[in-house]
Amino acid sequence: MSAPTPPIALHLPDLPEVSVQLGGTPPPPGPRPALSWGWRLRQALSTYLPLGLMALLALSTWWLVRHTPAGPGPAAPAAVRQTPDYTMTGFAVTRFDAQGRVVLRIAGDVLRHFPATDRMEVEGVRIHAIAPDGRVSEATARRALANGDGSEVQLLGGAQVTSQLPGGDTLLLQGEFLHAFLRFERVRSHLPVRVTRGGTELRAGGLDYDHLQGTLQLAAPVRAHLLPRARAAAAASGSPR
């Protein structure tokens, strides 16, 4: 029989004794290390930089809204001109009907057109109007105000209107102011006038003459100078008595 194997012995070095303490008060912490200014600045920038960028973005947006030009909107109405837009000297304006016949002719020394009221101002006006039945009316004055189509004319200063009547008679209206409505063959005035037909003369404080209705209204005071028919016919023809 073989001899038994002797046991192996391990020799461990002596370990230092470590004291283990359970519970109790931990030792006081030591002093914190001092932080550099660069580190603190980086921390502040990382914290407040996003807020600053957002505030700057909001401010720039407000500035853009305030200074961005407005888009095209409805056009503002143009200022009405109080001065004439055109002037004509030694002029003549003629109107025609649908058949090409002359119905109105306005001539004068100077014409000014005012766009604010679509009115014409005429110096040395001369008007020639032809009614549908062929009757002719003439008007003159030192000055006139007319609407755009010439159908309404205010005669100022030495105004005179001559109109043909049925039977060949002529009616003459005179005054410092005559308001003629050529389309309706009507003449009005609130100032003194003189009306002459043949040898008959009427003076009144005003008138309203409607040719289509065949009426003549005179405002007081009214004075009349009447001639006998024979003398009136002679006066109209220019023959001696």
Topology record:
Elements: H1 37-67, E1 86-96, E2 102-114, E3 119-130, E4 136-147, E5 152-164, E6 170-181, E7 186-189, E8 193-197, E9 200-204, E10 206-210, E11 215-219, E12 223-225, H2 229-237
Antiparallel strand pairs: 1-2, 2-3, 3-4, 4-5, 5-6, 6-7, 6-8, 7-10, 8-9, 9-12, 10-11
Helix content: 10-25%
Looking at the structure, the CATH topology of the domain at 86-237 is lipopolysaccharide transport protein A fold
Q: What low-confidence regions span 5 or more consecutive residues with pLDDT below 50?
A: none
CATH architecture of the domain at 86-237: Sandwich
- Tell me the structural class: alpha+beta
Shape field: rod-shaped
How do the SSEs run, as a string of H and E? HEEEEEEEEEEEEH
CATH superfamily of the domain at 86-237: Lipopolysaccharide (LPS) transport protein A like domain
Give the averaged pLDDT, no decimals.
77
Strand segment tally: 12
Q: What portion of residues belong to β-strands?
A: 35-45%
Span between termini: 203 Å
Radius of gyration: 55 Å
* Main sheet properties: 12 strands, antiparallel
Using brief descriptors, characterize the structure shown.
241 residues; alpha+beta; lipopolysaccharide transport protein A fold; 12-stranded antiparallel sheet
Structure characterization notes:
It contains two helices and twelve strands, in the order αββββββββββββα. By secondary structure, it is α+β, with helices and mostly antiparallel strands. It has a domain at 86-237: lipopolysaccharide transport protein A fold (Sandwich). Strands 1, 2, 3, 4, 5, 6, 7, 8, 9, 10, 11 and 12 form a twelve-stranded antiparallel beta sheet that branches. A hairpin with a 4-residue loop joins strand 2 and strand 3 (119-130). The radius of gyration is 55 Å and the shape is rod-shaped. The chain starts with 36 loop residues before the first helix and ends with a helix.
